[in-house]
Amino acid sequence: MPSEQSQLYSAALHQLVLVDSPFAKAPSAVKYVYIVDGAASRSPELVIDADEPPFDSDTKNEIAALSDGLPPIEFITSPEERADPGRVGLGVENDGVIVGLTPAQRQDDGTVHVGAGLWCGMECGIGLTYIIDNIDGTWTVTGTTGPVIIS
């Protein structure tokens, strides 16, 4: 059974890439998802939070195992590893997107907030905070909260 943390991140990742990204329509132009390894801010630069450690290998493996329906995923240390701002089309190698995920924050009502940011080029990105609720044993995105960043 995957950890709760992996299930939360998987729910946010599916919503971000398959529903809320600028390329969520079928067929998607996104061919690869690069996840910044560790908690990241939702800033356009997806700056890694120095206070948050990288994901452990079990969490990475579980997120990968829960990635059905997503393009192939890869964990990267820094967005610069795959960013290619001069590239025509998506500004990420392999027609990919770079994703950052914030640490999960439990709420008094039982929901969990997970921030997620997606960068796909110089003026292409989205950042928001998902409200995730456990519905019938499955962590499900039920909405968003706070500001939404779109470029």
Strand % is 35-45%
Computed structural class:
alpha/beta
Instruction: State the end-to-end CA separation.
Output: 37 Å
Shape: globular
Q: Characterize the biggest β-sheet.
A: 7 strands, mixed
Describe this structure in words.
The chain has 151 residues and is of the alpha/beta class. It is built from 2 helices and 7 strands, in the order αβαββββββ. The protein has helices at residues 4-20, 57-65; strands spanning 32-39, 73-76, 96-101, 105-106, 112-121, 124-135, 138-150. Strands 1, 2, 3, 4, 5, 6 and 7 form a 7-stranded mixed beta sheet that branches. Helix 1 packs across helix 2 (57-65). The longest helix has 17 residues, at 4-20. The radius of gyration is 14 Å and the shape is globular. The mean pLDDT is 86.
Walk me through the topology.
Layout: H1 4-20, E1 32-39, H2 57-65, E2 73-76, E3 96-101, E4 105-106, E5 112-121, E6 124-135, E7 138-150
Parallel strand pairs: 1-2, 1-3
Antiparallel strand pairs: 3-5, 4-5, 5-6, 6-7
Helix pairs in contact: 1-2
Give a quick set of tags describing it.
151 residues, alpha/beta, seven-stranded mixed sheet, 7 strands
